Each structure stands twice: as structure tokens, then as C-alpha cells.
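sry for the spam today, last one i promise. C-alpha cells for design, 222 residues
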């Protein structure tokens, strides 16, 4: 696979999505064995503190789902680009984090083999990190309407997994799934109403809040 400076961001996202497709399925299976620690997060007992964490661009698994329409695929790819930007903003100041750009990740793809373990191991060795953080965008649906009147609310679904590069152990995972509900539909949404106001948020606002909150719970990033 060749990567040139003339490739569009969309082309890079599609290449990364193909590279992540099998790995996303493998991670979902592996993390089902992790211990639940609540609030959409899971963790295993740490092997040891991580000296460096490589943060990959967010990907999708659109190539593994034949039911995804072309419009949905474009939306997921857009969501992956947006999620990548939020993670880069939130983590770029962490001295133990290496944020990998889409271009850098695409150049690594020819060296990847052996599924999720091979991918994590190859990236860890190439970048010099003992942890790899992967994010998969599974739904990224924009609201229909505006912030005061919505015919259909925003909806998002993301999965994050931090994997030990040497052993392949899943150290931490987090899921964020939300379809916004009005306060009248769900009285339990009072806290979100207090934070967001009585408005229908965009999917970008929803994903930004979800990623920021999940990253704050990861013990390896503190």
C-alpha cells in the first residue's frame, strides 16, 4: 500500500478503516473478557505502568458490514476524522502519549499482519511505545433539525481499547453510546440537561463530550 502526500484525508480514512476492520472485531471479542468497572468502562489489572502510548487515528468497520449504505459509510468516516481530532487535542499535551497522524498510520499498514496482535505489536515496535490506543466509530448520526427543534436526535457509538504492545493484553476499554433524549422522555437526563441546556446537541458535541469523559477515566493517561 502506498501513501503519498496527494492523498485526500478521506482516502486515508478509508485505508485505515480497512486496516482496522478485522482488528475491531477481534478487540470486541477480547474485551468481553475484561472486568467491568462501570460507566461504560472496563479494565484489567495493570501489567506495569506504560512508558509510552501510541494513539491511532479513529477507524470504522464499514468494510465488515454489508448493511452499511454509502451515506452511512461517509458519515462514519467523517465521525472517525472528527474523533481523531478530539483525541489529538485532548492528549497532545501528555508527555507519555504519541498521537499518530492518518498519514503516519497509513505508512505502517504494509508492515501489519497477524490481526489485532500483529497490528499492535508492529506499531508498538515501530513507534517505540508499549501501549496502543485504538478507537472505532460504530455510529455517527447527525440530528435532523436545529438545537431547539429536532425531528431526529443525534446518535453516536464509539469503542476505545488500550492494548499492551508486547503481550496483546487488553488493559482498558471504554464504550460511549448515546441517542439524545428530551428531559420529558427521560427524567434521568436531568444532569445532561444541566450541562447542555434544553437544546438538541449536534453529533459532534455529543462525541466530543463522550471522548473527553472517557479519556479522563483511563488510569494509564493520568
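last one done:
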Amino acid at each position: 500500500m502506498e501513501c503519498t502526500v496527494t492523498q485526500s484525508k478521506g482516502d486515508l480514512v478509508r485505508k485505515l478503516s480497512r486496516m482496522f476492520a478485522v482488528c475491531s472485531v477481534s478487540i470486541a471479542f477480547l474485551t468481553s473478557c475484561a472486568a467491568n468497572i462501570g460507566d461504560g468502562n472496563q479494565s484489567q489489572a495493570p501489567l506495569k505502568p506504560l512508558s509510552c502510548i501510541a494513539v491511532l487515528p479513529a477507524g470504522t468497520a464499514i468494510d465488515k458490514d454489508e448493511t452499511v449504505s454509502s451515506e452511512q459509510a461517509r458519515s462514519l468516516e467523517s465521525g472517525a476524522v472528527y474523533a481523531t481530532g478530539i483525541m489529538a487535542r485532548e492528549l497532545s499535551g501528555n508527555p507519555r502519549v504519541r498521537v499518530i497522524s492518518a498519514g503516519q498510520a497509513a505508512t505502517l499498514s504494509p508492515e501489519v499482519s497477524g490481526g489485532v496482535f500483529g497490528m499492535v505489536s508492529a506499531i508498538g515496535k515501530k513507534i517505540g511505545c508499549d501501549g496502543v490506543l485504538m478507537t472505532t466509530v460504530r455510529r455517527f448520526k447527525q440530528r435532523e433539525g436545529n438545537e431547539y427543534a429536532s425531528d431526529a436526535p443525534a446518535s453516536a457509538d464509539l469503542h476505545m481499547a488500550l492494548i499492551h504492545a508486547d503481550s496483546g493484553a487488553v488493559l482498558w476499554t471504554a464504550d460511549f453510546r448515546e441517542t439524545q433524549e428530551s428531559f420529558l422522555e427521560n427524567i434521568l437526563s436531568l444532569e445532561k440537561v444541566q450541562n447542555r441546556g434544553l437544546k438538541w446537541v449536534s453529533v459532534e458535541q455529543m462525541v466530543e463530550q463522550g471522548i473527553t469523559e472517557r479519556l479522563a477515566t483511563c488510569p494509564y493517561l493520568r
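The chain is about 40% helix and 20% strand. ok im logging off now
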